[in-house]
Amino acid sequence: MDNFGIAVHGGAGTLSAVEMTPQEEIIYRKALETATMAGYNVLVKGGSSVEAVEAAVMALENEPLFNAGRGAVYTNSGKHEMDSCIMDGNTLKAGAITGINNVKNPVSLARTIMEQSEYVFLSGKGAEDFAHKMGLAFEPDEYFHTELRHGQWLAVKDTEEVLLDHKKVTKFGTVGAVALDVHGNIAAATSTGGMTNKRYGRIGDSPIVGAGTYAKNNTCGISCTGHGEYFIRAVVAHNISCLMEYKGLSLKEACNKVVMEDLVKMGGEGGLIAIDSQGNMELVFNSEGMYRGWKKNGEELQTGIY
User: Fold this and answer.
1) Which residues pair with 98 in a beta bridge?
2) pLDDT of residue 161
3) How far apart are CA 125 and CA 84, in angstroms?
4) What pLDDT is stored for residue 171 in this prediction?
5) What confidence score (pLDDT) does residue 77 get?
6) Secondary structure of the chain: what % helix, strand, coil (to 5)?
């Protein structure tokens, strides 16, 4: 199969074109290029879609620009609580984690759960204990600290306000990737640090199979980014797959219906990246923008923000 490819996102919503300097745009686009190529280089060597989306998301988790891994935002208690999910469209196996601290690459823990345990979804300390048992990398709190995130938290930590990444704009910093490999297998992965100043163990859509992440070989792979409560209620990722499988909609038709119609009617803002079994890609959003990168076999790498 020669129509393999990968798409990544660094979150829907963005600084406006007026607020973002040319230098900032270059930095963001370079980070998206690096993540896209991290996954594509796996695919071009015959690697699996699961390996490719993990590699791409790890690159985004290691980049402080995005709200995942190293760039995760602060909770009300001053911690970094991270969520992630990965799904194999060939086997329909999935792994997910929520509310974990100090794991360097949450997406790798999600994959380890999928491939080396009988479970799908682990949380908190139990998930961290499993990560220690499996020898995954941990980092101290200082590794996850950035002045930008810390400043955002300090501005609201004594209030009930919850922020979506940037204080003055609606920006969802969740990251994700979808891929189709040379073997015809699809995979999807998503990772996030959630919302600044979040309380009560809040969980968004990112780690929930069928809401923020889904993959099935005969339909599509989906990774979402946006206001998680709406994506959970609309079961966005699985809904798109079902529209394709049971109603015969194309990937484009299904994505547009869910993101541009269903979510809008509910008041939900955000977007998603998607790939189908033929290598068609959709990167659709109803917000001002979405950080995204994509590359198909034989085509140039592309990135977008607005």
Assistant:
1) 123
2) 65
3) 15
4) 56
5) 74
6) 35, 25, 40
Instruction: Please identify which residue in the block is written with the tokens 């690697």.
Output: 47
With a CB cutoff of 8 Å and minimum separation 6, the contacts of 55 are 38, 39, 41, 42
Walk along the chain (306 residues) in steps of 10 and give the mean pLDDT of each run. 96 74 92 98 98 98 94 81 97 98 98 98 98 98 80 69 52 87 98 80 94 98 95 98 98 98 96 98 95 97 96
How many helices, marked H, and strands, marked E, lie in the chain?
10, 12
Quote the tokens at residue 8.
């990544």
pLDDT (0 to 100) of residue 285 = 96
Backbone angles phi, psi at 169, to 5 degrees: -135, 165
Interaxial angle between packed helices 124-133 and 106-116, expressed in degrees from 0 to 180 and rounded to the nearest 10: 80
Closest residue by Cα to residue 182 from 58, 277, 62: 277
* Amino acid code (one letter) for 180: L
Round to whole Å and give the CA distance between 306 and 304.
Answer: 6
Catalytic (active-site) positions: 174
For 277-292, letters b (16+ CB in 10 Å) and e give bebbbbbbbbbbbbbb
Instruction: Give me 53's structure tokens.
Output: 């989306």
Q: DSSP letter at 20? A: S
Check residue 21 and give its pLDDT: 86
Q: How do beta strands 121-123 and 94-100 pair?
A: parallel
CB 100 within 8 A of CB 127: yes
Q: Contact, 9 vs 271, CB < 8 A? A: yes
d(CA 60, CA 190): 10
Class of domain 5-304: alpha beta
Q: What per-residue confidence (pLDDT) applies to 17?
A: 66
